[in-house]
Amino acid sequence: MNKQLRQAVIAGNWKMNKTRPEAKALIEDLKPIAANATCGVVICVPYTNLETAIELTKGTNIKVGAENVHFEKSGAFTGEISADMLTEMGVEYVIVGHSERRQYFGETDETVNKRTKAALNAGLKTIICVGEMLDEREKGITEEIVGMQTKVALLGVTAEQLKNVIIAYEPVWAIGTGKTATAEQANEVCSFIRQTVAKLYSQADADALTIQYGGSMNPKNCAELLAQPDVDGGLIGGASLKAADFGVLLEAASK
Ligand code: PEP
Fold first, then answer.
1. pLDDT tens profile 212-249
2. Which residues are catalytic?
3. Three-class SS of residue 123?
4. Which atom of ligand 1 is nearest to the CA of 238?
């Protein structure tokens, strides 16, 4: 029942893929496919494709996001991009705390929190990624890990700002591996995240929060995952790189 209280959002995470001509071709293919979706449609693209994506999606239902953002406003941070630089371009969404950033680029719960606050303060809709590693699941500490990641990421985030937050539950062992969490496992953790948010804010705030599942979601497994009561869409890697596959996910999330 509460599922009606929030919008399902399918967000593509292109990662380090697509040159500008390739991005242009994919977006042109995606536009007619996405046009009938009633779920939110977001593509998070490499920085080099943001301008192309914003230009090509003007007047469509496709929103554009970045894959990361720095927490400082400006200064000597070679290679980084600030939230103001993104909003000035017309970027609406940003992913923070993706497990690849945590694994390969030293991202911690504390820096995820800083990035979250910087993004929200600049008015960006912020997709915060949380999720356990395989050994953490096997040790039975999934809830401790995901609970802590969620709580630290949201430190200092107001209830008003929470309206611009999406949480993506992405078990690390399921990302890009072809191994999907079962629909029950995905729902169990998404529901746990909602309870955690309810304790931090209120039940109404938690009921209004979009919580996505991410991890090898594809045209074959999406219907069952997206039908779960606490799964409100998905953060999609591999299957966001082909317009037809992404289209199947949009259709499933629009039901
Ligand atoms: C992701 O990058 O967030 C992701 C879920 O990737 P994939 O769908 O390829 O597992």
1. 999 999 999 999 999 999 999 999 999 999 999 999 99
2. 98, 170
3. coil
4. 9
